[in-house]
Fold these 2 entries.
Entry 1:
Amino acid sequence: MENPTMKKLDRRCKRTKQAITSAMLALVQEKPCASITVSELAQRADINRKTFYKHYHDTMAVIDEIENELVDKIFSNLNRENVMLDIEDPYPFLRQIGESMRREGERIRILINAGEDTRFSQKLDQALSDMLDTFLKHNTSVDPVVFRFFTTFLGAGLRFIYVQVLMGRTDVPIERYNEMIAELIGYAKRMLHPAVQVPAL
Amino acid sequence: MENPTMKKLDRRCKRTKQAITSAMLALVQEKPCASITVSELAQRADINRKTFYKHYHDTMAVIDEIENELVDKIFSNLNRENVMLDIEDPYPFLRQIGESMRREGERIRILINAGEDTRFSQKLDQALSDMLDTFLKHNTSVDPVVFRFFTTFLGAGLRFIYVQVLMGRTDVPIERYNEMIAELIGYAKRMLHPAVQVPAL
């Protein structure tokens, strides 16, 4: 199984891709994505065009891969098999998302500044929607309309707050936001338990 | 006070501006905003360029005005002096926003399709932020950090849901969403009343 030659090739391939993505992230800070050429990108990554085409179809495929990796990393903080566990006890996954943001924040900030926020948001929405589909297939005890509303509504709120933090538009630290988000989810999750009666305020 | 000549001029001015905005909304469905020229716009509105410049500095000023008017209309559904009243009893303003969306939905949809959603969102955020500033200046009994978090988090959720409805990405009717949003706010608002104890689920 352990083929040293394959392993070496794999490592080299990974290094080349890393050089390409780093070059892309540098270039999108200088000019619009659409105007970046393969030649420029290859030159910046210190590879030739032929090598570039071994890994990617075009320049947008590089952006696409960076975004997909970020979406995967963000969602890896959630309990994909049973998102209800995260709703019941949101603080652990919120703290992990906070840590992911610290590690990956710079890349996300570059993408947002490059005007990629709409595409990136759509990918996050799609990943959330896929996760909910899987969850709802196996959990027939929740109302799918209420559950889908609840998760997408709160997901949009989460995204808004984290973008504010990432873009430096707020002085409130992410830990304080996570406490408030956890508290809000703690109250709001009652709508997923219609049988439980709570006194009116 | 009632000067019939002025009134007539006012009406004519309004009609000209309406012709220009209608022409703009038609053109952004055909080509990118940035490539629309004043000549094209004037021709489509059936006015001359000189008349255009009497009303607007450039083509983007037309988009800007359309967006500002929409933001004003959306916020006119809220109790601007005391947004807490809307939080305590959200259903009336949600129903009104639903009606505004029905009336103004087509314009908003055109702007979103034209890629104006980021700018439009920023204007909504700014309007919300201004409203909160005014509210917090006169209400020292709420924690400003919690209150600002609560309203912007829920505001982002609301925007997400209404965009889904507007863009036809959901089969759930807006009335059902408004019921769910009102229920969610009803639970979540407890975080604004820290003194009230509620039993844990």
Entry 2:
Amino acid sequence: MMRLTYANGKDEYELLGQLRDRGEAVDKKVSEAVAGIIGDVRARGDEALREYTARFDGYCPEDLEVSRDEINDALSSADPEYVQALLSAQENITEFHTRQKHQSFVDMKANGVILGQRVRGLHRVGLYVPGGTAAYPSSVLMNAIPAKIAGVGEIVMVTPPGRDGKPNPDILLAAAICGVDRVFLVGGAQAVAALAFGTGTVPRVDKIVGPGNIYVATAKKLLYGTVDIDMIAGPSEILVMADRSANPRYLAADLLSQAEHDPLASAILLTTDEEIARETIAELGRQKAALSREAIIDQSLSGYGAAIVCRSCSEMVELANLIAPEHLEVVCENPMEYVGKLDNAGSIFLGQYAPEPLGDYFAGPNHVLPTSGTARFFSPLSVDSFVKRSSFIYYTREALEEAKEDIVRIANSEGLSAHANSITVRFDEQAL
Amino acid sequence: MMRLTYANGKDEYELLGQLRDRGEAVDKKVSEAVAGIIGDVRARGDEALREYTARFDGYCPEDLEVSRDEINDALSSADPEYVQALLSAQENITEFHTRQKHQSFVDMKANGVILGQRVRGLHRVGLYVPGGTAAYPSSVLMNAIPAKIAGVGEIVMVTPPGRDGKPNPDILLAAAICGVDRVFLVGGAQAVAALAFGTGTVPRVDKIVGPGNIYVATAKKLLYGTVDIDMIAGPSEILVMADRSANPRYLAADLLSQAEHDPLASAILLTTDEEIARETIAELGRQKAALSREAIIDQSLSGYGAAIVCRSCSEMVELANLIAPEHLEVVCENPMEYVGKLDNAGSIFLGQYAPEPLGDYFAGPNHVLPTSGTARFFSPLSVDSFVKRSSFIYYTREALEEAKEDIVRIANSEGLSAHANSITVRFDEQAL
């Protein structure tokens, strides 16, 4: 069960070390195996892709691509209430992410100089969706919707075939709702390699997003640079800050919702009220018995869970900034006044009625968030994740002539005479 | 000297392969050496940092930090005309990058729901500046100015000591102009590791930017995730598109300005006019003799240079999009109409009077650009490179109740009953 400790400036650092180490695990054997698969798919294309699919998924479909009819069927045969739930989520996610979209800009100066930045969607993006019990339709929404808003030309989904050789119907449904363009029944490192290089069947993409197991994550890491990737996601985390106004039943439920993800998931409570800490721990025991993933919950709470009693709200804030959690709940009076103090968090949930699953599925902001303390410098997945920018410069002869002396001076200070020459050659018809 | 070829859909692919391979070189020996240095600096801090500095730079200053007086002296003792040149560049760079800055946003709905995205500068950023002949003051401007505009709290520069144990005065001058907060006389992989973990002397940073040799680049790559990095820069590139309106003297000068950077640098001319190709090649021979880095120019032009005669403007555009160059000059009539067609380029230079060095030093857009074809998915360094974002969500009881059914439905479809419980527990006082 979850431990109870008191903030003392020492135990928290130890806990922090434990959390960081979860994200840092690098398995040399996995790296070597994945590098082999990547090299093989690069060299032999579809032949290698089919061999690995048969070997790892137990079955390789004759046609690796899911037909448009099958995708449309997923939509027409689904439970209408479930479709409506996904459509409502889609509407909220679309509305929030549309606010993130940035325009190209241009500065046209009176002297004829034009400077600008063009922003446009990536040409083609690959979306990895795991199979089995980790097949989450919400992941499809959270990745595909910002890509669409960014103006991505084509979204290509890959997902491993199930044991029946078919795709997960909920995943196909989500793909149909979001307007995913093509779906291929391949998974693992071989699917990532196929997207990075292209094969006869699978088209090459510019960026690969979406969660996956250690093989998928390692393949993405190794191929970063050949292709862009979203981020290397570590195990999930929640940090809950609560003062005496909080309801321990709600706190426990929210901590459990994170703990059920994964034995390595982390759920931590910071509170200024020791009684709240004790009651929340008691509630955890009561509520978890009724949940479907109790064994996973027990492992994650005992391994990476803690209730830490703090001396003040500012100590809670300090610890939260130190931990830099993926999800941060502020269950305190006047929660809004904390936002400006919280420097490191992926997504912040404010008040009694913003449980973390609201953000996972429905509210609008993205659920693909930085983990393992990387909220110090990484940001949630966004429309910006799916665009590229180019700057452009137009100068007139007169404007360049005015800048000539300065540019030549800097070029010469750097010892780059050909840089200086490219300016002067335009004004000295006798030169060289 | 530069080769002359004709676009035929085959040679260009071969050339493309050669360009890509330059950026892909991974040296296993270097990786192992760098991993050793990183581990050592992490474990032993300043002690290891001093040992490596003495070993690799031949001298370890007693005080690793450059004093504020010394930085101020660099400004007061510099050539006033040179200072003015840097200040003019700073003004243009500041003006352009200020347009990139994005605000936090908030959506406050009529039902009391609040959704938002907070944007703020990173807490502390490390800026690597190489020593020796690759010490470029312009790099300091291009990295430090967007960081300042982003609201970065502290900029920490590291640069190796020169043979006299002192920093390069032009680098210190640029640091003073840009408001760099602290400067340390360390370089190489050991400096990158010190910034990533912090030592007794060097503070830990959230992101490391700036160019460096293979040891620096490898250290950044290995530490990505522990700290954020800008990008792994490959050798520099220019692609020039020219129609018959172009002046071969100017074209040659611009190609040379890129070729002088590095024996691996690439300078390619695409033109619809064979005569222009031939005259440009003749001009290259004429102009290079007067330049200071002729040996480097010869290597890069013969290794990675080419003049490719195309059958049409649209063939030039197609090839440019395929090559995805770092720098792209459009020296054609009506250059502006090409911008919307050019999908993959770091920075685009339009017309006869926008030579690439204008962008390196002066015009305003950033000169830190994606190389080796990565303009397909990467973007120039920008203010966005120095911010982090958090989303936030506030819901009322009524709004959550309205969303309840949808969220529970999605959670259950994903088999996550604790997610569903975190919603229902708030509305069913009897539950569990």
